[in-house]
Design a protein that fits this description.
Radius of gyration of chain A: 28 Å
Number of helices of chain B: 12
CATH superfamily of the largest domain in chain A: Periplasmic binding protein-like II
Strand order of the largest sheet of chain A: 2-1-3-9-4
Number of domains of chain A: 2
Helix content of chain A: 40-55%
CATH architecture of chain B: Orthogonal Bundle
Oligomer: heterodimer
Distance between the termini of chain B: 29 Å
Largest interface: A-B, 41 and 34 residues
Radius of gyration of chain B: 25 Å
CATH topology of chain B: MetI-like fold
CATH architecture of the largest domain in chain A: 3-Layer(aba) Sandwich
Strand content of chain B: under 5%
Number of domains of chain B: 1
Shape of chain B: flat
Strand content of chain A: 5-15%
Helix content of chain B: 55-70%
CATH superfamily of chain B: MetI-like
Chain lengths: 452, 333
């Protein structure tokens, strides 16, 4: 409605119309093909031609990589990506995500139909459900003469089980770790080698407001404590003919021990603690034993600004041949990568012996190459590495080659939490877990013997 | 029924925009079709109507593509069994099996049970505290501006930030809450999020802290829209503040209260990120609400059929609740 006293002013409707026409014209102009440029006058040729550098090997290629956030290898990975770009022209964009969300992110990316990621680095169990979308690496290993020596033994055994029907390598190992027992050397002279001795030690250091044991009690972290006490009894979680065994007497004993140790010797509320909480309590001198991956312990334990136990700590394996599960991080390359060669060269560069040694020295990255752990230059900076590598030698990787490995892990995590928190009896919690495992395993055919 | 045969009396004409099946055959208090202003004679609005339709087409198509399409796809998937983490797996039609399993599953029943407790306690407390907060900020007392800002702070924080913040505050050893409780009341260290009983209480308290301001501001807006003459008349008649609140303010605020209940109930049922950050659904399944259970089934176990069936089961429950609330809101006093 226009005002009669000002015929030159635009009404609201006319103003909107003008703006809309203008915006439409701008959009049309931006979408129009570029006009042919007016040819310039022929320039006077220069006396000396300017030399141009030859294009780099992978010039113009950009690929995305997904890895876990907050791990020790994150900073060197970014540095190596920059180095790779400078040398080859291939840009690697690194995205990070918390461990719990990695599987969902990768599945969503693949389901989108236009996957973003060319490279992924984390547990080989992530490869089991998607191996048909991965590049088999044996030919590339041969082509680039990539050194496959010096890795931890489990890597040779388990990595080839990604596709249960044929021993094809889909992964390049980068990092190997497990959860040892970290302890205070000012309190404990010699770490016990029996479970009875371990319980006596914990009991002797608990009381009067003090607690001996530091653990991460959230669901997914309880699994390693269960495995350590279960495998020390010498039984697998699944029999060779695929019967679930975790709810047998050994399983009940193992979970009961976890509950007992946590309830009696750990501070209240640990069932809400995650890895950093457990590590911090140990570094602050609140506890004398830490059962943990120890992501932050080696990096900070000898720093007086971050630790009250500087120079007063060490590590030991679990008693009676107990062991936690292996945590391996490895590269896998998707078939949809813009350049599989560039992706492999980057992965090979990161996982090479030279860079593995450099990352171990500078960032404390726990290499998948065992030779790095006993290298004199590394040991000079990381004196705990040789003892830790002995602990890793004992570790196991459960449910290798099973596409439902992630689901089995989460089910066991829930069962452990139900039992340890007291929401269910130990037997009931493990019976429920075993039933869930059986249902999950029945979703696929298993025409080979299970081994652990 | 042809337009000229429809009832003409005010009492039985449904509200504009409300489907007949939803509106009760009761007198309406708001604007009816009869009172809609008619365009002036001689002015042709055909062009504007066409333009308005054109503007509506784009967002409608977007909404269909982004919301309705995936929703219908999820409904279709709920009749299939599909284990997405198995290599080369495909959906297999199973009919109503997924829904039957949802109804029979004790884990779903347990999850629904704690979800109902969570929603009832949170929404009830938020309503009561929201009413008190609204009375405070509409009371005209000194410091009302500061109070309004204080109410805004939790409301503006994202659920993940709130979750991380309260995980730290409720830490059993390093958290300031346990420290304060020990210092002031000599209470022993409380496990809070590490105990199956206290975890649910802690989550409820955090949810109340975070979302009470929503109720405060909605109720305050409702209070400020009430006619002041009734209050003045009651004061002249010698009514006390409590009598004014009980007999005048509260009855007039009933539609606003129903809106608060509806909004907060829907939001509480959908809550995932706060719970995930605080407790990951643990210890055990003590804080595994329906939303988190659906997340676990779909994005951790990759059981797409079960996850979609469970989510549709929850959606139908929420829709039923929504219909009840809407009918209450639309009913004329």
């Amino acid at each position: 409605m226009s005002h009669s006293h000002d015929r030159k002013a635009l009404s609201r409707r006319e103003f909107i119309r003008v703006v809309g026409i203008g915006a439409g014209a701008a959009v049309a102009a931006s979408c129009a093909p570029k006009a042919t440029p007016t040819p310039k006058a022929t320039p006077v040729p220069k006396a000396t031609p300017i030399p141009t550098s030859p294009p780099k090997k992978y010039e113009g290629i950009t690929m995305a990589m997904l890895m876990q956030s907050g791990v020790a290898e994150e900073p060197p990975m970014n540095a190596l990506a920059k180095e790779f770009f400078a040398e080859t022209g291939c840009k690697i964009e690194i995205d990070t995500e918390s461990w719990g969300n990695l599987a969902a992110k990768i599945q969503a990316d693949l389901a989108s139909g236009a996957p973003r990621y060319a490279l992924f680095m984390n547990n080989p169990s992530f490869a089991y459900p998607i191996y048909d979308k991965l590049v088999p690496l044996d030919d590339y290993i041969e082509k680039y003469n990539y050194a496959m020596t010096g890795f931890f033994e489990p890597s040779y055994k388990y990595d080839l089980m990604v596709d249960p029907l044929s021993p094809v390598r889909y992964v390049l190992p980068v990092r190997f770790s497990t959860s040892p027992l970290w302890y205070r050397t000012d309190v404990i002279d010699e770490f016990p080698t029996t479970w009875k001795g371990y319980e006596d030690l914990l009991a002797a250091n608990t009381g009067g407001g003090k607690y001996a044991l530091s653990v991460a009690g959230v669901k997914v972290q309880l699994v390693k404590y269960f495995f350590a006490r279960y495998w020390s009894q010498g039984v697998p979680t699944i029999s060779p003919d695929w019967k679930v065994l975790i709810n047998g007497p050994e399983g009940v004993k193992a979970l009961a021990m976890v509950k007992d140790h946590i309830t009696k010797y750990a501070p209240p509320g640990v069932l809400a603690w995650d890895n950093p909480d457990a590590d911090n309590a140990f570094l602050a001198g609140e506890t004398v034993v830490l059962e943990s991956w120890g992501h932050t312990v080696p990096a900070n334990a000898d720093n007086p600004e971050k630790s009250k136990i500087a120079g007063k700590w060490s590590l030991a394996p679990y008693p009676e041949n107990g062991t936690a599960d292996i945590s391996e991080h490895c590269f896998f390359i998707f078939k949809t990568a813009k350049s599989v060669d560039a992706a492999f060269e980057f992965a090979a560069r990161v996982a090479s012996t030279a860079n593995a040694k450099k990352m171990a020295i500078e960032n404390g990255v726990m290499s998948a190459r065992k030779v790095v752990w006993t290298d004199p230059d590394v040991v000079a900076v990381r004196p705990y590495f040789p003892a830790f590598s002995e602990v890793i030698d004992l570790a196991k990787m459960p449910h290798a080659a099973l596409p439902m490995a992630g689901e089995l892990f989460m089910m066991l995590a829930e069962g452990c939490s139900l039992g340890v928190s007291g929401q269910m009896s130990i037997q009931d919690a493990l019976d429920e877990t075993a039933a869930n495992w059986t249902k999950s395993l029945s979703a696929a055919e298993h025409n080979y013997e299970y081994q652990e | 029924m042809p337009p000229h045969d429809r009832p003409r009396d005010e009492e039985h004409r449904p509200q504009m925009g409300v489907p007949r099946w939803l509106a009760r055959r009761s007198p309406v208090s708001s604007v009816s079709i009869e009172s809609t202003p008619t365009p002036p004679v001689g002015v042709d609005y055909t062009h504007e109507r066409r333009l308005s339709l054109l503007f509506l087409v784009v967002p409608t198509l977007l909404m269909l593509f982004v919301s309705v399409g995936p929703l219908l796809y999820s409904l279709v998937l709920s009749f299939f069994k599909w284990k997405m983490d198995l290599p080369m797996s495909r959906p297999v039609f199973t009919g109503l099996d997924n829904y039957v399993n949802v109804v029979r599953d004790p884990v779903v029943r347990q999850s629904l049970h704690i979800t109902v407790i969570y929603v009832l306690v949170c929404v009830g407390a938020q309503l009561v505290l929201g009413m008190l907060g609204a009375l405070l900020i509409t009371g005209g007392k000194r410091g009302v501006g500061l109070l309004r800002t204080a109410f805004l702070v939790p409301f503006m924080m994202t659920p993940v930030v709130v979750g991380v913040l309260w995980r730290t505050l409720l830490h059993s050893i390093y958290g300031p809450i346990n420290y304060a409780l020990g210092l002031l009341f000599h209470m022993p260290t409380q496990p809070w999020l590490g105990d199956i009983h206290q975890a649910l209480i802690a989550v409820i308290l955090v949810e109340i802290w975070m979302h009470t301001p929503v109720a405060v501001f909605i109720l305050a807006a409702g209070m400020q829209a009430l006619p002041i003459e009734l209050h003045k008349a009651a004061v002249v008649d010698g009514a006390s503040k409590w009598q004014i609140f009980r007999h005048i303010t509260l009855p007039l605020l009933k539609p606003v209260i129903m809106v608060v209940l509806l909004v907060r109930t829907m939001e509480a049922i959908k809550q995932v990120d706060l719970i995930y950050t605080l407790t990951y659904g643990g210890p055990g399944r003590a804080t595994e609400f329906m939303s988190l259970l659906i997340y676990k089934l779909g994005l951790q176990y990759f059981r797409i059929g079960e996850a979609t069936a469970t989510s549709w089961f929850l959606l139908l429950l929420v829709l039923g609740l929504g219909v009840v609330f809407l009918r209450s809101i639309l009913k004329k006093e």
